[in-house]
Amino acid sequence: MFLRIDKLQVELPRPQSADPDAAATVQELMGGKFGEMSTLMNYTYQSFNFRNKSKIRPYYDLIANIAAEEMGHIELVSNTINLLLDRTADDVDGADGAAPLGMAEGASYPDHFLNAGLGTMAAGAGGAKWSGDYVFSTGNLKLDLLHNFFLESGARMGKIRVYEATDNPVAREMIGYLIVRGGVHQEAYAKALSDLSDGVDLTKLLPVPEIKSEKFPHAKKFMDKGYHRFLYRFSPNDYREMSKIWNGPQADDGQPREVVDDLPEGGEVPDLSEVSAMFAPGVNAEDVNELAQKFVR
Questions:
Q1: Reported pTM
Q2: Is residue 1 part of a domain?
């Protein structure tokens, strides 16, 4: 089962204005082939389908626990997109007679306006919807771990490219965090494969792509706090055996890897503005109070 906590994994700055072009670019990190939906669903289904847990429990614990963290990653990406879109209607409403949703015309991602109420889509930057075909779950541990290492490497490439495609501070804050956390997952799968191999240390391949996370200022700030060494345990009592894999010196700086029996400090979930032109949410406090009075009569 899952326990949900009403916080983001990291605090997001609030934008000064709407940036729908940045929101469109960040969509790739949600529903692109190497986006957070892919990492979440691959590890989730692998954990569902995992066999012989009692004998190879550390590997199950690792995959299942990372899957739980990925749920928070899609929440973080989604809230970033939503913040970048939040003030779009306000920025044009009533300006020189402009249509309230006029930014939809010629917008990089018109679905944000026409189908999502200025919200996130389960799709990539090009508009292609996320697909279950992206899920790889064979039941063979080595094969699934190899795929996960490849997936995290592709995801790291995607994060770096999106980071370099936008200078929006909200987007870069989120991406910097995910570059670091994705690097942990990439290294964890490399370490798991190395432990299954006879003298082969796949962590020597890191980083993939070949640029250190510390080169990105928004990632380095999280590395300075040790986030590149930590695997958070997303359960009050379970998934303890992943520490049999996540141990030893971290690949970037040689400091000890650490399983943290706590959650990230986190940040507040944004309270998005009402968008009356889209009837979102379409009710207000007065409506709710009026309905409540009718029910108690």
A1: 0.94
A2: no
